[in-house]
Amino acid sequence: SSLFAPIALAPRDPILGITEAFNADPNPNRINLGVGVYVGDDGRVPLLECVKRAETLLLEGSQPLTYLPIDGLQAYDKAASSLVFGADSPAIAEGRVVAVQTLGGTGGLRLGADLLRGFTPAKRVWISDPSWENHRALFENAGFTVETYPYSRERGRELDFAGMVGCLSGLPAGDVVILHACCHNPTGLDLTPEQWAEVIEVVKARGLVPFLDIAYQGFAEGLDPDAAPVRAFAAAGVSMLVSSSFSKSLSLYGERVGALSVVTSDSAEATRVLSQLKRLVRTNYSSPPSHGAKIASAVLGSPELRALWDEELTGMRTRIRSMREALAEKLTALVDGEDFSFITRQRGMFSYSGLPQLVIARLREEHSIYALDSGRICVAALNSRNIDTVANAIAGCLK
Ligand code: PMP
């Protein structure tokens, strides 16, 4: 029989299934709330003006398309890590932070996973329940056992902080903990600064390995405030990993622009870690693509473009927030006796709506409104034209 005959069919991506069903729906008024990207009020992924201008500058410069270094464009690596740790980060100044350009945030997570699995005793990774659906598969494929810590209650509408801290407090030293720095995917539930301080205490006391995932920097409160948990961890003096991404914040999805930053204890350690990260990259894809990294570093390196980016990011963040407020307000008016204020407390692109699966199914069948079975809706997919339809449909299905 054939070489590949024993290969079983891999499970389908649940989000892709929703997209396919949406695309096949003949209803012209169908609404896709299952998307995982930011779309503007016009329902389209924006091309940011700061990106357009950076691209124009790059075109005018018409540089040859050579290979980048194994660890990526140096200006990009510097810009990416200082965006996360802060321009005045002591860890960076002390030469303890290693940054490598990666294939999006996903590539940063995978490179970090390979570093931990290949060069440290770590064998077990803890992710939140629920978490971004790729976390489990990614770390399992890198050779880890993946477990979950409690994260939400009230069908995903509220944070289960006691459950989370209780679980982390019982873990053995060396276990890896994946933490969403802001805009938790899929729930939209984030920790307060006080809660972060408590988690940092526990992580430090137990000797856990924090791996922060920051894929939505700028979507909660702004670039600096959203990175505060990363900076608090760095200030606590623990060795840590951070995967960051410009996919959403610069709307650069297909360009695959992310970074892995590793905070080590001294610059000699940093040199050794970087040498092994480069080996991992070299034997995998050799070196990263250049175009997206050039765009990102052009934006971050120019005061004008950087200011423009801030403005455009603020526009995206504000629009999402106003959609949250509108949805909560409309549902409160339409549905008796249910509190929808959780929608405005959740942050980032997603909301765990807490809607039962039966309601999600009816929204799809009766209204051509597509949300994930888990109840996750993309708030960014709401806009001035569809918000009333969505609110009325949800209210109708809840009656
Ligand atoms: N982490 C989380 C929590 C995400 O939601 C995503 C993207 N949906 C990523 C990482 C990966 O992002 P990228 O597209 O940059 O690989």
Automatic annotation (TrEMBL):
Residues 30-394 form the Aminotransferase class I/classII large domain. GO terms for molecular function: identical protein binding; L-tyrosine-2-oxoglutarate transaminase activity; pyridoxal phosphate binding. Keywords: Aminotransferase, Pyridoxal phosphate, Transferase. The keyword Membrane does not apply. Pfam families: Aminotran_1_2. The keyword S-adenosyl-L-methionine does not apply. It is an enzyme of class 2 (transferase). Its EC number is 2.6.1.-. GO terms for biological process: L-phenylalanine biosynthetic process from chorismate via phenylpyruvate. Its cofactor is pyridoxal 5'-phosphate. PROSITE patterns: AA_TRANSFER_CLASS_1. Belongs to the class-I pyridoxal-phosphate-dependent aminotransferase family. Homodimer. This is Aminotransferase.
